Records
---
Amino acid sequence: MIDLRRRTGALLLAVVIGHVVVISVQVNTASSVRVFEAVTFGLFSEVQRGVARVVGGATGFWNGYVGLRSVQAENDVLRESVATLRFRLQQERAVAQRVRGLEALLGLRRDIGFATVSARVIAGDATPYFRTVTIDRGTGDGVYRDSAVLSPDGVVGRVVSDPGPRAAKVQLLIDRKAAAGALIERTRAAGVVVGDAGQGVLRMEYVSNLEEVQLGDVVVTSGIDGIYPKGFVIGTVEVVRRGPGLYRTIYVRPQVEFSNLEDVLVIVREPASSTTAAGGE
Amino acid sequence: MKAAWVGLGLGLALALQTTLASMLAGAGAPVDLVLVVVVAVAIAGGPIAGLWAGTVGGLVQDALSGGVIGVGGLAKTLVGYVVGQFGSRFMIARAWQQLLVFFCGSLVHAGCFIGVYSLLFDEGMMTSYGAVLTQATVNAAIGVTLAAGLQAGPGAIERRRLRRRNLSRRFGG
């Protein structure tokens, strides 16, 4: 019998071949190794939940008791109400746009109501190369694959992979594989916003050189991708120049501060009980 | 080196990577704690220990992240094996030697990781040389600190035990 402990080269070869097989299977079908992924994610999300709770508890204790106790509590309440108001403002803005748009002209009435559930970010990505976070809500709360994730500031990302019962993985909009249908709010020029994690900004693609785009223009979701609701703020145009081909080169500074995400809102299938935000109120 | 300790180290590194590292360093967390543990295990335990630590740590990290499962595993396996082979042939005892090994290990890992993604996808990984160098530097700094702590830990416990024994002999406690 071959002693692999002595034949380190053979062992390395076997393991490398195993990795290559695993990679090639995924790249071909883009759907395998789900069991491994799901089990690992499910198990480790519980560890992450525990660690996040300990860290959150320690931070909360320090902020709430050792620090300025009453001021901190008051600040928390005010911050929460400001976040709620900002979120509602965005919703109202989305509603107003729809009323002003074609739907109003055609006399169509659509219900934009959607239920949301608040979620806490319990972990970041396991590698420094991707931009995903783990939230403490899963299928048990109505979260599903491709659920849009929002914050009071704007669009955060979407749920990727099949969420676990109590946790879900969210791909941030700045991830290099993320994309969303978008509009320049002022001119209604449509395009696609894609992530550019290396720079921490977003690129807006497929906007014609003939379209007028200015620095500071607000970029909002177009709703065309079927994931993000229409009219939510993505960011503002930071760089715009005439592109070499048909399209402009546009960089968008995201409205959401991705580096310190704590609480987010997730659009869910069914209205959740007490935690549901006033998405469709 | 006991597998349980390696598993514990990898688990702790993953937990810290996904919670504290990304929170502290923001969206562009330039540190890979799992890689630091893999390199440390490879230095201490040789190529086989490094290989298995890299395989397990990398695969679990892949499963938790948004990427293709196996890419990180492959990169960390290779780094664990190469560092283990290097460590079994040369003395890596001094801090600057360890710093160099952690730094080069991080560069090799980044090269493998980004290289495989470039082969798989047209757009590749889109990361800058500066980011890779920063990550390698931070990994090396944390690795050397970890190694120093691990070396000092058992010695400190032993010294404390001896001190207590001497005191109890002197005062008859």
---
Amino acid sequence: MTRRVTVRTQSISLRLDMRVLGLLGALGVATLLALTLSVGRGDFPIAPLEVLSTLTGAGDEATRFVVLELRLPRALTAVLTGIALGIAGAIFQDLARNPLVSPDIIGISAGASFAAVSLIVLGDTSGVISVPLAALGGAIAAGVALYLLAWRGGVQGYRLVLVGIGVAALLHAGIDYVFTRGQIFQVAEAYVWLVGSLNARGWEHVWPLAGALAVLLPLALALGRQLEVLQLGDDVARALGIGVERARLALLAVAVVLTGIAVSAAGPIAFVAFIAPHIARRICGTVSPSGVLPVAAATGALLVLSADLIGRLAFAPNGVPVGIVTAIIAAPYFLLLLRRANLLGATG
Amino acid sequence: MTQGAVEPRASTPPATARSRTALLPSARGRVLGLCAALVALLACAVGSLAIGSLGIPIGEVLAAFTAFDDSDAHVIVTELRLPRTLIGLVVGGALGAAGALMQGVTRNPLAEPGILGINAGASFAVVLAIFVLGVSSVALYAWFALLGAGLAALMLYALAGAGRGGATPIKLALSGAVLNALLVALTSAVLTFDTETLEQFRFWIVGSIAGRDTGVLLSVAPFLGAGLIIALLAGRRLNALALGEDVARSLGQSVGRTRAASGAGFVLLAGGAVAAAGPISFVGLTVPHVARALVGPDYRWIVPYSIVLGAILLLISDVLGRVAAPPGELQVGIVTAILGAPFFIWLVRRRRLASL
């Protein structure tokens, strides 16, 4: 049995799972520690206490610059990207009722990448349309195309996944083509973007992410209940009074936009959206899907932040892009998971 | 997590029931059809010699072989377009056969080297060869491509075959797509380190038969030849396997040996094709389906038809790529993706995604 507390005010009533709250607290503390570490470590080391005092307004000018202008926005971008990817991955997996699905596989990230890479290699990145905007647009366009192509009197899980695989294959061919059309230095720049990197991320990346998450996060959590009912199967969900297709569309839209904003801020960081929900489900135990969503978000944040930290410190002075670290960490885990999921017959 | 009632289950209608839906039901019709396809292939080959940024009349193309006179047109035909056409023929045939073998042995309509990560395995091996070992000759890429394709195929088999029901269509497709994504991510990771590797690799990865060295063709010819022989001989065994493993066993077949032989043939064909032309997707997917629509479920016919139709598709795609985006060219791998992805989506949109 899970213990729950109920919070009631005049207009809102919330039932909170104690285990989820505990996990969120623990992950939050771990993320804060990683954040302090991330802001403190690097070419210009700053002691943890000094980091804290700088954040509260003290410290000399150099320290303030390094902390407030360089490292803090980068670390915050990592945290926010991780939140968005973790929750988007959890929604996709629950929607498709398939643990192997992630925006990397079904073409959402590929849509964002195609648009961004085309702009970097062939276009003018200083124009009205910036790379982040192109990536967001690409993700949304891919999401719309995916939905329309998979629609057949409704969008069923497995058709969505397979159509997505086709869409992703086409978009990846497009990306490879674009790479043959440009100058090598632009192509190299596009490649770093394509792997997912947090280099030189500033407040201009943090604010749009934070703004979008402020809207999308409550929306995703509110839709969590419907996600839970959809898990029971379309017929049961209908019997319980859920507009099945509308709920699915809403959830899909939220997950696509969450993926889009994450990719537009940091590039398609490999497999965070895939692995964060798995770790979350593992540590949650028997918690319901709507309870897993916030834990997946927190896990994603910790994952991206730590991966970036590892990439910066273990490969100093130049560092490696965060996406390389997540891909390498994910690889063995990923193969084990794939085999396990197939053994259990969870993939269909 | 549970899979709902959408799970496509193996249901193989008796062969006779399906033959009736084949466009060429009689043996005579099939022989004539194959002859017609060969004639069409010849026409495509001549077209591939004649069409391009410089159109060359067919009389002139023939004259380049019978009365070579060192003119630009003759040099283009013999030095540029002939090797390209030959590579296209061989690679297209190999990809068609590879798709037919893989679909037959996995009994899975979505099996294909491109989307299932076999090409990605070959690409990753080539990138490592360039980056770690400093290999810079395209002829040497071939060996690494073959090795990578083989390892990826083994991995896919170990992963997707696990669990209840073996490699069902969605399980295979998803495991392959996941493996593909992983290998692509690792490939990109290597490429960010080194611009020189990227510079070599970015023209290889698109899959093109233009400007490839015919020497490569010679070095992969033994692999492709062996693969084609395996594919052509596998027809009867694949037919038995199509009735289900138990039936195949009761007919005296060693299912394990069929799998191993077909798998080896598939790796030789797919790996050799990647080695000669870079990764090309969707030819192996589409062609066996067209062959099946023509001749029904008999793999003794599907394989030869797939070889010829694969070569036709590849040559047509290549010619389309030459004229589609002047003054440049679209590489053949891009064209097959543009043509093949809609076909794949159409295939998975059908109401029942039955096993083969």
